[in-house]
Specification:
GO molecular function, one term: metal ion binding
Number of domains: 3
Protein name: D-alanine--D-alanine ligase
Shape: globular
Cofactor: Mn(2+); Mg(2+)
CATH superfamily of the largest domain: ATP-grasp fold, B domain
Radius of gyration: 21 Å
Bound molecules: adenosine-5'-diphosphate, magnesium ion
Order of helices and strands: EHEEHHEEHHHEHHEEHEEEHEHEEHH
Structural class: alpha+beta
CATH class of the largest domain: Alpha Beta
Pathway: Cell wall biogenesis; peptidoglycan biosynthesis; Glycan biosynthesis
CATH topology of the largest domain: D-amino Acid Aminotransferase, Chain A, domain 1
Keywords: ATP-binding, Cell shape, Cell wall biogenesis/degradation, Cytoplasm, Ligase, Magnesium, Manganese, Metal-binding, Nucleotide-binding, Peptidoglycan synthesis
Strand order of the largest sheet: 4-3-2-1-5
Number of helices: 13
Helix content: 25-40%
CATH architecture of the largest domain: 2-Layer Sandwich
Number of strands: 14
Length: about 375
């Protein structure tokens, strides 16, 4: 009988997407096949303390303000998780992240969205330790997390992105009127203001006046050292999932239907009252094919492996498409878009989780082939 792989499930973390991460992890813990895998939950608090012997639900309880997105059913399922005998640290807080768990874990499955999870930093740590992990590597994660850098690379690869301009937080703070003047010179209202590094629509605003612009710029600057201004596109929002390392599979295309009362696809529309998803999207076969092809091209241009979700704007009047952004660790509950797109393309959620673990081992083995310079 082959040995069961032991999977470290990482969740929580210091990003503004902490709570979304708890929901993703709860779902993965529930659905990973326990006859094949031992599960080691590893939580990271909002202040960055690493803990074993915890669950996403327990971390949710520690949050000061919470919308409680893990419901009672999910709480129950995470409590059935097998916790392997990771040595109990003398205090529940682990001083050296992963050092005591690493010898017991074969693969890390990070379910950390946003900064310190999706942006290459964690991936660097895992490579230093030498442990296989699910998801893309350091470079792909870091670039894809930064919306400005992503757009620069996609544009250089001939892929369509919305007109944008970035400003440094320091410029804004030093001379706000000059920055606001420059934005008004380059963009009409309404326009979008967002942190270059961010996610879950946190810090994103649609603005219609100079006063709203000022507030939105300072809001975005709370989350990153760079803010992006983008032309607002009147659009439908469609998404495509890519899975694989060398042989890439593009999923069917899905659409998020944003309710009329929402100004855009904001945090509320994502997590609190989740928007309806239509899979496959009601678009022509040609357009779906173009979206799939562009997603694969973008996946390669950004040096990604394993998985990524590509979010597109489909302009209502012109039917032009633009790649809005790339998520290398997209929200991952079974009802979220990435798993749903895979399911609609023939890969059920538990099988997707298993496939991602196989891809993690494959990537690790591929990296081991590189001769190091010393
Ligand atoms: N340029 C834009 N035109 C139209 N809608 C936009 C634009 N930029 C952002 N949005 C809206 O804001 C949402 C969140 O923006 P996005 O850039 O995807 O940030 P996040 O990484 O936080 O999801 C989008 O899904 C869309 O609804
Ligand atoms: Mg988005």
């Amino acid at each position: 009988m082959t040995k069961k792989l032991s999977i470290g499930i990482l969740f929580g973390g210091r990003s503004s997407e902490h709570e979304a991460s708890l929901a993703s992890a709860a779902s993965v813990l529930k659905h990973l096949k326990q006859d094949k895998f031992d599960l080691v939950p590893i939580g990271i608090t909002q202040t960055g303390q690493w803990m074993t012997q915890t669950t996403p639900y327990e971390l949710q309880q520690q949050m000061a303000v919470t919308t409680q997105i893990i419901d009672a059913d999910m709480q129950e399922s995470t409590q059935h998780t097998i916790v392997v005998d990771t040595p109990a640290p003398s205090s529940p807080l682990m001083q050296h992240p992963l050092s005591s768990v690493a010898p017991k874990v074969d693969v890390i499955f990070p379910l950390l969205h946003g900064t310190y999870g999706e942006d290459g930093k964690l991936q660097g740590l895992l490579e230093m330790i030498g442990i296989p992990y699910v998801g893309c590597g350091v470079l792909g994660g870091a670039i894809s997390m930064d919306k400005e850098k992503t757009k620069q690379i996609l544009r250089a690869a001939g892929l369509p992105v919305v007109d944008y301009k970035s400003y440094r937080r320091a410029e804004l703070e030093r001379n706000p009127e000059k920055v606001l003047d420059d934005i008004e010179k380059n963009f009409d209202y309404p326009c979008f203001v967002k942190p270059s590094n961010g996610g879950s629509s946190i810090g994103v605003s649609k603005v219609r006046s100079r006063e709203e612009l000022r507030q939105a710029a300072y809001l975005a600057a709370n989350y990153d050292h760079k803010i992006l201004i983008e032309k607002a596109i009147e659009c439908r929002e469609v998404e495509c999932a890519i899975l694989g390392n060398e042989d890439l599979q593009a999923s069917v295309v899905g659409e998020v239907i944003i309710r009329d009362e929402c100004d855009f696809y904001d945090y509320h529309a994502k997590y609190v009252e989740p928007s309806t998803k239509i899979i496959p999207a009601l678009i022509s076969d040609d357009l779906a094919l173009e979206i799939q092809e562009q997603s694969i091209k973008a996946f390669r241009a950004l040096d990604l492996t394993s998985l990524a979700r590509f979010d597109f704007f489909l302009e209502k009047d012109t039917h032009n498409i633009y790649i809005n952004e790339v998520n290398t660790l997209p929200s991952f509950t079974e009802d979220c878009m990435y798993p749903k797109l895979c399911e609609a393309s023939g890969l059920a959620y538990p099988d997707l989780l298993e496939r991602l673990i196989e891809l993690a081992v494959e990537s690790y083995e591929d990296r081991q082939r590189n001769s190091s310079s010393s």
